[in-house]
Amino acid sequence: MDNHTSYENQLHYYQRLIDISRDLASTLELDVLLKRIINVSVELSESQAASILLYDEATRQLYFQITTNMEEPTLRGINVPLEGSIAGWVILNRKIASVADVHKDPRFFANVEKTTNFPTTSLIAVPMITKDKVVGVLEVLNKKTGEYTEADEDILNVLSTQAAVAIQNTRLFQQSDLISELVHEIRTPLASVGTAAYLLQRPEISDQQRFSLASTIYIETQRLNEMASSFLDLARLESGRVAFHATFFDLPTLLSECRSVLEHRANESQVKLLIHLPANLPVLEADRDRLKQVVLNLLSNAIKYNRSGGEIEVTAEVSENELAVSFRDTGVGIPEEALPHVFEKFYRARGIEKVSGGTGLGLSICQHILASHGGRIEVASKMGEGSIFTIYLPLRQS
Fold first, then answer.
1. For 136-156, how does the pLDDT look when each residue is reduced to its tens digit (9 = 90+)?
2. Which of 136, 352, 358, 374 has the greatest count of CB atoms below 10 A from its CB?
3. What single DSSP character describes residue 280?
């Protein structure tokens, strides 16, 4: 390679770094942001693949968040140990690791290669650090021609610094935005609690009124507690701080467990809970606990917004690439104008929010969990006739 070609390559790299810095500064969606980072990392380092592992300092967990070469349900099920992995070494030492042959390096965590069936030969792993805080590791894998050079390390070092700042800014923006929404939402239950507590001090109220006010305080306190728990769950999902643990399991058993949990509540509301599944459903690979959280939320809503004597029917359909599970209820339904908004944070449709209270976060949490598995959720509804929520999960190809 002559000097002129080398100079042109350097100009190209620097121009791409400037371009990506603008892109990162203009992006506030974490998954979109991370995808841009790994794509440009592959391009600039001339690698076969790239990945980002995020680090949760509170739990000392290091886990795959996104990569160019894996299905999301697979990658998000992989935790990487701090001791006994190259990425873990990078986190603990805050240094770049450049390895020409990973199989000769004692730090290599072979479990990732076994799980993903993606052979790794060489890699560079760079810590993503901002304000002296490590937020994760950027890795590029398998140099297409030759070996990784110091120039590759320098480019990835610059990129990882930009990425760390962008990730932290995105998290701060999401959290401040979510906090402002939460503060707005808790004003109503706090006002109810405050008013009830004030009236309880009045000497002229009857015992029956005291009981009613105490009941109001209890209900609103429970609602605040549920809102706080849901808020923390959603905040961790939006900021990418949730590590998903993929396992193999069957859907009928999971649905049976969920029905057992909610059967008493369904009986109290005089709602029938029916499960009709085709035979020989494929085994799922996903985070079982998180998927159970989605199912429980959808069934709970179907009971909550149903009518006495109504029913809930769960069905499933398998296509070539995905499994669709539908939750149909015979409840009050959702107004047509509200359907585009039901998965928004804190949203409760007018006309049905008085049927039953809630946090307005459950469906948003479901949507985040499914998106993290490469799936999605859809809704169809008609006022007075009921609703159908359908979740779609990708099926891993053999």
1. 999 999 999 889 988 888 888
2. 136
3. S
